[in-house]
Amino acid sequence: MAQEYYPPPGFHFQLQFAGISSGLDNSFQEAAGLAAEWELEEIREGGQNLYKHRLPTVIKYSNLVLRRGFVSSNSALATWCTDTLATDFTKPIQPRTVQLSLLNGGGTPLASWSFLEAWPVKWSMSDFKSQENALAIETLEFAFATFQRV
User: Fold this and answer.
1) CB-based contacts of 12: which residues, under 8 Å, 6+ apart?
2) Integer Cα distance of 17 and 23 in angstroms
3) In the predicted model, what is the mean pLDDT of residues 69-77?
4) Which is the most buried residue in 8, 68, 86, 117, by most CB within 10 A?
5) What is the pTM of this model?
């Protein structure tokens, strides 16, 4: 009898930052931005009014967006983000490799993606509202050169 396949749930994942090993810095509640698409150039052909030729030019990536409950302690990840975002370009940006792994129920990676040459481009906090009982959420966004499935 053929074994049935069930798609894995998307809530069990792990993040790792090269050079940062703190469990606190690797714990996030959401990871988004795993997307790549071709940018297209449209070329009109003389006398042809029914369509345009669409040619690929370069691959475009969205930012890797990570969300977690606010971490108030100074951590290696927070220091890296602060140093990068508060720079006046007197010292170079220090890119790192970020690895995102989708895990099975036993914690074994089913698939992993490496984001190469990643660096923080945005940090934001959720709104503070006295009328709601919600966690303070920080959002980190990272630009990267490319990603690959490993």
Assistant:
1) 102, 103, 104, 105, 107
2) 11
3) 82
4) 68
5) 0.84
